[in-house]
Design brief:
This protein is α+β, with helices and mostly antiparallel strands. It has 2 helices and 3 strands, in the order αβαββ. The protein has a 3-stranded antiparallel beta sheet. A hairpin with a 2-residue loop joins strand 2 and strand 3.
Protein backbone atom coordinates (compact mmCIF):
# COMPACT_ATOMS: atom_id res chain seq x y z
CA UNK A 1 0.00 0.00 0.00
CA UNK A 2 2.86 2.42 0.78
CA UNK A 3 4.33 1.86 -2.68
CA UNK A 4 1.01 2.71 -4.36
CA UNK A 5 0.85 6.04 -2.50
CA UNK A 6 4.36 7.04 -3.55
CA UNK A 7 3.54 6.22 -7.19
CA UNK A 8 0.45 8.39 -6.99
CA UNK A 9 2.49 11.29 -5.59
CA UNK A 10 5.10 10.94 -8.37
CA UNK A 11 2.43 10.82 -11.09
CA UNK A 12 0.59 13.78 -9.58
CA UNK A 13 3.81 15.76 -9.40
CA UNK A 14 4.56 14.98 -13.04
CA UNK A 15 1.12 16.31 -14.00
CA UNK A 16 1.81 19.60 -12.23
CA UNK A 17 5.21 19.86 -13.92
CA UNK A 18 3.70 19.17 -17.34
CA UNK A 19 1.01 21.82 -16.81
CA UNK A 20 3.62 24.34 -15.72
CA UNK A 21 5.86 23.68 -18.70
CA UNK A 22 3.00 23.93 -21.21
CA UNK A 23 1.84 27.25 -19.74
CA UNK A 24 5.30 28.75 -20.18
CA UNK A 25 5.13 31.15 -23.09
CA UNK A 26 1.43 30.68 -23.73
CA UNK A 27 -0.90 33.61 -24.22
CA UNK A 28 -2.95 34.89 -21.29
CA UNK A 29 -6.70 34.37 -21.45
CA UNK A 30 -8.50 37.20 -23.17
CA UNK A 31 -12.11 38.24 -23.31
CA UNK A 32 -13.90 41.24 -24.74
CA UNK A 33 -15.09 43.82 -22.22
CA UNK A 34 -16.31 47.39 -22.00
CA UNK A 35 -13.34 49.48 -20.78
CA UNK A 36 -15.60 51.79 -18.74
CA UNK A 37 -18.14 49.44 -17.14
CA UNK A 38 -15.99 46.29 -17.31
CA UNK A 39 -19.01 44.33 -18.56
CA UNK A 40 -18.12 41.24 -20.58
CA UNK A 41 -19.09 41.69 -24.24
CA UNK A 42 -19.40 39.32 -27.20
CA UNK A 43 -16.05 38.90 -28.97
CA UNK A 44 -17.30 40.63 -32.13
CA UNK A 45 -17.50 43.88 -30.10
CA UNK A 46 -13.69 43.84 -29.99
CA UNK A 47 -13.23 42.76 -33.61
CA UNK A 48 -15.87 44.91 -35.29
CA UNK A 49 -14.90 48.22 -36.90
CA UNK A 50 -16.99 50.07 -34.28
CA UNK A 51 -14.85 48.49 -31.52
CA UNK A 52 -17.01 49.33 -28.55
CA UNK A 53 -15.01 46.83 -26.48
CA UNK A 54 -11.38 46.10 -25.74
CA UNK A 55 -9.67 42.83 -24.96
CA UNK A 56 -9.24 42.18 -21.24
CA UNK A 57 -6.40 39.79 -20.39
CA UNK A 58 -6.30 37.34 -17.52
CA UNK A 59 -8.61 37.61 -14.54
CA UNK A 60 -12.10 36.17 -14.43
CA UNK A 61 -15.75 37.01 -15.03
CA UNK A 62 -18.19 37.32 -12.15
CA UNK A 63 -21.77 38.56 -12.50
CA UNK A 64 -21.02 39.54 -16.10
CA UNK A 65 -18.06 41.77 -15.19
CA UNK A 66 -14.34 41.17 -15.62
CA UNK A 67 -11.88 41.54 -12.75
CA UNK A 68 -8.42 40.50 -11.64
CA UNK A 69 -6.76 41.13 -15.00
CA UNK A 70 -5.86 44.06 -17.20
CA UNK A 71 -6.63 45.70 -20.53
CA UNK A 72 -2.83 45.85 -20.93
CA UNK A 73 -1.66 42.46 -22.22
CA UNK A 74 1.93 42.98 -21.08
CA UNK A 75 0.72 43.46 -17.49
CA UNK A 76 -0.52 39.86 -17.35
CA UNK A 77 2.02 37.98 -19.48
CA UNK A 78 2.16 34.40 -18.26
CA UNK A 79 5.26 33.04 -16.68
CA UNK A 80 6.01 29.98 -14.63
CA UNK A 81 8.69 27.59 -13.45
CA UNK A 82 11.55 27.73 -15.88
CA UNK A 83 10.20 30.72 -17.77
CA UNK A 84 12.65 33.53 -18.16
CA UNK A 85 9.93 36.16 -18.48
CA UNK A 86 12.08 38.18 -20.88
CA UNK A 87 10.75 39.18 -24.24
CA UNK A 88 12.30 40.21 -27.49
CA UNK A 89 12.44 43.80 -28.55
Amino acid sequence: MRRLRSSTVVLGGMGVLAATLTSCGSEPDKRCADPVTREKLPSYECEDSTRTGQYYYGGSVSNGKVSGGSFDKSAVERGGFGCSGSGGG
